[in-house]
Amino acid sequence: MGEIQNKSMFKLSYGLFVLAAKTDGKDNACIVNTVQQIANDPLKIAVAVNKVNYTHDMIKETGVFNVSVLDEGVSFDLFERFGFQSGRSVDKFDGFSMTERSENGLLYLTQNCNAVISGKVTETVDCGSHSLFVAEVTSAKVLSDEPSVTYQYYFDHIKPKPEKKKTGYVCKICGYVYEGEILPDDFVCPLCKHGAADFEKI
Ligand code: FE
Questions:
Q1: N or C, where is the chain less crowded by C-beta within 10 Å?
Q2: Is residue 1 situated within a structural domain?
Q3: Domain around 132
Q4: Same domain as 196, residue 147
Q5: What is the distance in A from the centroid of ligand 1 to the CA of 160?
Q6: How far is the CA of 196 from the centre of ligand 1 (A)?
Q7: Residues 152 and 174 in one domain
Q8: Could you tell me the pLDDT band of residue 86, with boundaries at 50, 70 and 90?
């Protein structure tokens, strides 16, 4: 193999999505950056999810998920809520009212979300750190005409600029900063997919 520069992956045009699942009446969600349409007949999408994510386990168990496509109006708060905390012990929807349920019973975002797509898994590919869920689209709805947020837009306009030195952990791959005393072992960088092992204390 030749040289591999992880940062080159950011040149791919990632969007940002809230991926929701549910088991035993408990809703959960995480932020992912890889959702692609892979076929049109039948209509299929693929979603890559880090295995340390609780949402990953829920999708493996139930085979269904919702993808909320985030738009450019999304706030940093939403990233903190769905991306920056460990999912096993926290209720990410606690106090969050901007949701509705689609016909599969799962939640999706009604704000800062321009489309919702429901998927039913037809194939799961073990990719190492991640599972790739290939899914048939069971419903899909456009919610607004706002542009989808891209990775670049997030870095340029949404992520707070680091003015003063903060305590926390920085992702060695993409520079994402986790603010907090302790980084959970199952933490996954919401932007670049790397796990807690690729973070260092600042
Ligand atoms: Fe990262």
A1: N
A2: no
A3: 7-158
A4: no
A5: 15
A6: 9
A7: no
A8: low
Domain count, the chain: 2
Whole-Å CA distances, 144 to 69, 102, 148, 187: 10, 16, 10, 31
Q: Label the pairing between strands 64-70 and 99-101.
A: unpaired
% of the chain with per-residue pLDDT over 70: 96
117 CA to middle of ligand 1, Å?
A: 25
C-alpha 80 – ligand 1 centre gap (Å): 14
- Collect all residues with Cβ–Cβ distance below 8 Å to 101 and sequence separation of at least 6: 107, 108
Q: Which residues surround ligand 1, an ion (CB under 5 A)?
A: 171, 173-174, 176, 189, 191-192
pLDDT band at 190 (very low <50, low <70, confident <90, very high): confident
Name the pairing type of β-strands 99-101 and 107-109. Answer: antiparallel
Residue 162 C-alpha to ligand 1 middle, in angstroms? 16
Q: Euclidean distance between the first and final Cα of the chain, in Å?
A: 32
Does position 118 have pLDDT exceeding 80, yes or no? yes
Taking the C-alpha atoms of residue 112 and residue 89, their distance in angstroms, rounded to an integer, is: 26
CA of 25 to the centre of ligand 1 (A): 31
Find residue 48's DSSP bridge partners. 132
Do the beta carbons of residue 126 and residue 51 sit within 8 Å? no
